[in-house]
Amino acid sequence: MDSDQNTPPQGSSVGSLLATVMQEITSLVRNEAELAKAEVSEKTHQAMISLAAIAVAGVVLLGGFLTLLAALVFMLNEVLPPDMTPWLSAIIVGVVVSVIGIVMLKSGLAKLQARNLVPDRTLHSLKTDRELAREHRHNVKEELK
User: Where is the chain membrane-spanning (predicted)?
Assistant: First the structure.
């Protein structure tokens, strides 16, 4: 008997060859499903850690940023004509900050697109396995001839 358990002995029947192929395919599919599950879990965990870090940083930055905005409004009050302050300086600062915030939000959302969460290793492995299965099927057909 061969030392390789997956190699059928000489003179094996077509049925046993097909059974071996089916066992290998079943095992392969099961292993690929486990790999996909692990990789999706890893990607999800990475995304959650990133989102938590962004949220905490945002809260800390918000306090400092609001203080700086208030100081900017007070500074504009000194520059603008007295009959237009404080409302005009607050509107100017609010519009500028809102435009900057929209640009930053769009950038952050682009980084969280679905393509960044695709299980690349699993897809590559599935393509490789498909080629190996085709080759194995071809070899079995040749043995049966």
Answer: 51-75, 87-105
